[in-house]
Amino acid sequence: MIENRLNSTGEFSYSGISDDMIRFIEKAQLKDTKLWDLIIEQFSTNSDDADDGWRCEYWGKLMRGACVVYEYTKDRELYNILLDATKRLIEKADNLGRISTYSVEHEFCGWDMWGRKYVLLGLIHFFEICHDEEFGHTVIETAKAHLDYIISKIGEDKIDITETSMVWGGINSSSVLEPVVRLYSITKEQRYLDFAKYIVDRGGAKDFDIFYAAYEDKLYPYQYPVTKAYELMSCFEGLLEYYKVTGEEKYRTAVINFADKLIESEITIIGSAGCEHELFNHSALMQTYTGYDGLMQETCVTVTWIKLCHRLLLLTGNMKYADEIEKSVYNALYGAVNIDGNLCSDEVRFDLPYYKDVYKTYHSKNPRGQVFDSYSPLRLNIRGKAVGGFKAMDNNTAYFGCCIAIGAVGIGLVPKTSVLNDDNNYTFALYLPGKAVFNNKDGGRVEFEVNTKYPSDSKIGITVNTEGYFSLNLRVPYFADNYSVTLNNDIINTENNNGVITISREWHKNDVITLDLNMNFRTVRAPKNPDDKAGKNHIAFMYGPLVLARDERLENAGGVVSIPQITPEFIPEQFDEAMMACKSVKIGDRKIKLIDYASAGRTWRRNSQFEVWIRTNGG
């Protein structure tokens, strides 16, 4: 078994926006017992037979996110809700061991395998937080029976796994690889590793080996014959788990190649991907494409990208993956959180006309909107334009969606990414205000207290509340072209080694390290797309990791800005609706007011329409 280079074994107690987001999601969604009732009931009625749907994914997605959030909050009420939800799901298993929203007569088509994957993931995640050893055994036995039935039907000389879905070349089905490997890691039962090998050998997609393509490193993911972003990344999450149990370097190489190709070709300014609905489409170039005005950058894609980068950060220790997580979290992810409980406007788009009636029926009794938005616009638009993965339930009186279900795990991963440990080294990958506590290898405690308003401010103070010799690794974000480090107010010389400053010494209680970053207020020019002359005439502005946006509440968004050949001047501003930053950009005689992307568009109406990419006169 290959061990991660870094681990997240600390206990964290934070304040600020990361804690606010977790507490909001925990209260507004994860403790909603009526929601758990609704999604558990889907396993009683073969609810997905009629439309080959994905109601089967909701329980596992929500359970995974809730367990990750619980690891941070340790909230007893939440744990009891999750315990009850797991017990009730287990009761839905039939006499074959199946836990599915598809009947036996209709199984292994549509999104059935995708849903069975999420059942496995939900059970495994609850097992990892379970306080009751006996019930934990029941959880794993249930997961084994569930997977054993799948193995009895799918494999060599059985149903081909890539034939178990008629969409996306079967990559949705092949993504079951992750929980298969994880169940093997728990049980060490060889049949699960054998089944994982079968999935990998089949290549993920019908008639195309996505894993070999990534290893070969000739194609970008948008050049694959199947480009569904979320599902592709899910398959590579599974491949990384497979590498960790087999140690075969070609799989590690394939995952790193895949992720690095995404960074190069797909990840946008706000840290998401898929600028044509939910598909990889060379988004790094197409993010300013003026020929498309549809939905883009699905929240499922944002969260799965964060998860993949989190895995790669732990495995490799490479801080470029922390940079990617930070960019995604502070922009795309937090921007998707519907803190104000807004309802979609009349501009909302539904795949089927009657979904609008379902939406209105549900919210006639539930005045707050869903907790996560599904898409993240970049050019002039509003939030809440669609509910991704919308499915009607409970006789068309309720609904849920894929992005609503997945968001919590992204929110919960933020503290788990913050401070990482490896033997006697501690790495600050994200800078969150509050405390991080670890048990060291000698049985003692290592405690840090972080005092910062980052990313709204440049200074990060870290107090060491521990005696002893160890190393501190501090990430220097990609944007910080200059920085200073002091120890107890004395400047110290440090070397930036691939985005990391290392300080190894005998520490004394109340030692204070202060990192002051150049937040590098900067103008970003649009990529030059030869097929879209208008698209290249856009600019955006960034402050540290924060993308700034023009919002109708501050000034008229959407107009063309004249750009003289001068350096913009950046001025702090005050705007109560801004969660992290409000700035003005003075360009010649023109002053443009901007707020952080996550705060923009928060009314979900035209009165807060917003834009990241601002049209210019081409100057």
Structural summary, described in words:
The chain has helices at 16-30, 33-41, 58-73, 76-90, 112-129, 133-153, 171-174, 177-187, 190-202, 210-216, 229-246, 249-265, 283-286, 299-316, 320-335, 353-365, 402-418, and strands at 11-14, 204-205, 208-209, 391-393, 398-400, 419-422, 425-428, 434-439, 445-452, 459-464, 468-475, 483-487, 490-491, 500-507, 511-517, 522-525, 538-543, 546-551, 569-572, 582-587, 590-596, 610-611, 614-615. The protein is an alpha+beta fold. It folds into three domains: 11-412, Alpha/alpha barrel (Glycosyltransferase); 418-517, Golgi alpha-mannosidase II (Immunoglobulin-like, Sandwich); 522-615, no CATH class. The strands form five sheets. Strands 16, 17, 18, 19, 20, 21, 22 and 23 form an eight-stranded antiparallel beta sheet that branches. The radius of gyration is 24 Å and the shape is globular. The termini are far apart.
